[in-house]
């Protein structure tokens, strides 16, 4: 395995991709942003649809703009929305990234905005070609994990195999993040016992308690009849099936959306809304939103497990898909990076598939495209949300 | 030589394995992750359901992923199917006030 060579950033870890982020700060500017980005694989469009100011949305957009995989940023604003593109641009500029703003109303409308935007993005792409490459080690990598389209094989094959890969990554010095605190409701004490200190254990209990309270209010999830037919006897068993993705190493702390883990090792991402005067929908409205939360915390890549079959990728960071159901894999292999269904058919053990996932992480970090990346998947979702944050960074 | 069914023990501490196929009663089950260990299925066990790898007394823990995921409601012999009829959630029992 040749050494990894990342894209150097003025601050923070190197990137494994070198992208221009073209960010619309309201739905009204999304068409213009998409037209500016065009079909270039190196320009990723994302944004927030809301017109009313939402500090959470501004925070996550800014964090994504300052992600290691992003080298330059164009903000596309209509001109009268609540999100303050100027403040965002100032924060992004402080990280050393080239940043520009187009305000469609000032530019004179659609055509002028697109023309100017294409010129700016063209110049940014030319500039990115000069980004210095630096040697990078596994300890520079941050890897997230998430599941979607789960079935009975998820807890048997794909999730424990990813857990093995997570142990290998953490042992090699990487930073690893698991989300889905709602799934931990049935195994809160087991999760807490994984805390690296008494303090972290108590924070984990509190975080899972918050998730449970939110889910009761939002009438979200619990163990369903289908789960029972699938062989899951208890909520603990279902919860552990999802939690198995994060392996067995100590949990060093808890972060919220758009916060960087304060060190190496395993962290839990709390993406559940905090209590506020608004109950803004579900905690994670879909898989792409959860994946983007992980990426906003600096994940270079996301390991996504599925059983029924998912096809999603993401903006900014590659999504590596691990399929635990051999029949689904046979049907959708062009969307899947790792066939963990071989555990179910007896062709491979958990450890072997875990090692295969670990090696795939290194290959993707070295530049190899994941299936969803090569297919052009660029999903993203930023909803209105409320989270308390203590600004300690 | 009778053909054997297959089940997977996920963690070395586990006292259950997960059926990797629909297993009829009376069939020998090869446990993956354990050398050559064979358990006779006492009951038909559907795909992805649990089979006991040791005898588990009433009240004892059922371990999967190396951690307790339930406790036994009755004595469970080796090879028995484990599901809601003979195992229960601690989380729910605690919530329902059945155990402290």
Q: List unreliable stretches of 5+ residues of chain A.
A: none
From N to C, what is the helix and strand string of chain A? EEHEHEHEHHEEHEHHHHEEHEEHEHHH
Q: Note the gap between the termini of chain B.
A: 50 Å
Rough shape of chain A?
Answer: globular
Supply the CATH class of chain B.
Mainly Beta
Q: Label the structural class of chain B.
A: mainly beta
Biggest β-sheet strands, sense, barrel of chain A: 7 strands, parallel
What is the number of beta strands of chain B? Answer: 9
Helical content of chain A stands at 25-40%
Task: Determine the oligomeric state from the structure.
Answer: heterodimer
Report the mean per-residue pLDDT of chain A as an integer. Answer: 94
Beta-strand proportion of chain B: 25-35%
State the largest interface: A-B, 27 and 29 residues
Tally of distinct domains of chain A? 2
Walk across the major sheet of chain B and give the strand order. 4-3-1-2-5-8
How is the biggest beta sheet of chain B arranged?
A: 6 strands, mixed
The share of residues in extended strands of chain A comes to: 15-25%
* Rounded radius of gyration of chain B (Å): 14 Å
Shape of chain B: elongated
Structural category of chain A: alpha/beta
Low-confidence stretches of chain B: none
């Amino acid at each position: 395995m040749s050494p990894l060579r990342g894209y150097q950033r003025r601050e923070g870890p190197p990137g494994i991709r070198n992208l221009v982020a073209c960010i619309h700060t309201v739905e009204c500017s999304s068409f213009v942003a998409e037209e500016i980005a065009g079909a270039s694989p190196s320009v990723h469009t994302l944004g927030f649809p809301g017109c009313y100011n939402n500090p959470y949305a501004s925070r996550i957009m800014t964090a994504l703009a300052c992600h290691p995989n992003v080298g330059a940023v164009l903000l596309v604003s209509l001109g009268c929305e609540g999100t303050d593109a100027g403040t965002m641009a100032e924060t992004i500029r402080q990280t050393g990234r080239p940043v520009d703003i187009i305000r469609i109303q000032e530019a004179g409308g659609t055509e002028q905005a697109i023309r100017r935007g294409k010129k700016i993005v063209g110049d940014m792409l030319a500039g990115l070609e000069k980004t210095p490459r630096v040697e990078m080690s596994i300890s520079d990598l941050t890897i997230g994990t998430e599941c979607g389209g789960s079935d009975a094989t998820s807890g048997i094959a794909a999730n424990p195999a990813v857990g093995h890969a997570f142990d290998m990554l953490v042992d090699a010095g990487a930073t690893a993040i698991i989300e889905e605190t709602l799934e931990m409701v049935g195994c809160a004490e087991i999760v807490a016992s994984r805390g690296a200190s008494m303090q972290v254990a108590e924070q984990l209990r509190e975080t899972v308690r918050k998730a449970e309270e939110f889910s009761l209010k939002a009438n979200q999830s619990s163990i369903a009849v289908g789960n029972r037919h699938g062989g899951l006897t208890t909520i603990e068993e279902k919860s552990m099936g999802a939690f198995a993705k994060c392996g067995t190493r100590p949990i060093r702390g808890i972060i919220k959306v758009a916060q960087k883990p304060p060190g190496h090792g395993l962290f839990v991402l709390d993406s559940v809304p905090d209590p506020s005067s608004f109950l803004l929908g579900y905690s994670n409205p879909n898989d792409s939103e959860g994946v983007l939360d992980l990426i906003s915390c600096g994940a270079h890549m996301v390991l996504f497990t599925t059983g029924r079959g998912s096809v999603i990728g993401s903006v900014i960071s590659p999504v590596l898909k691990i399929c635990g159901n051999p029949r689904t894999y046979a049907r959708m292999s062009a969307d899947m990076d790792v066939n963990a269904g071989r555990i179910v058919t007896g062709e491979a053990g958990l450890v072997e598939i875990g090692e295969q996932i670990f090696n795939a992480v290194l290959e993707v970090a070295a530049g190899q495209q994941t299936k969803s990346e090569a297919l052009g998947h660029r999903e993203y979702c930023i909803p209105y949300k409320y989270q308390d944050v203590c600004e300690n960074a | 030589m009778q053909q054997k069914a297959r089940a997977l023990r996920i963690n070395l501490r586990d006292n259950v394995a997960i059926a990797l196929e629909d297993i009829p009663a009376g069939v020998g089950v090869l446990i993956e992750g354990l050398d050559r260990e064979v358990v006779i299925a006492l009951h038909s066990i559907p795909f992805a359901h649990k089979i006991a790898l040791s005898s588990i007394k009433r009240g004892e823990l059922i371990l999967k992923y190396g951690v307790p995921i339930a406790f036994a409601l009755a004595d469970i012999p080796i090879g028995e199917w484990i599901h809601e009829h003979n195992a229960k959630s601690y989380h729910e029992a605690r919530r329902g006030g059945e155990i402290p």
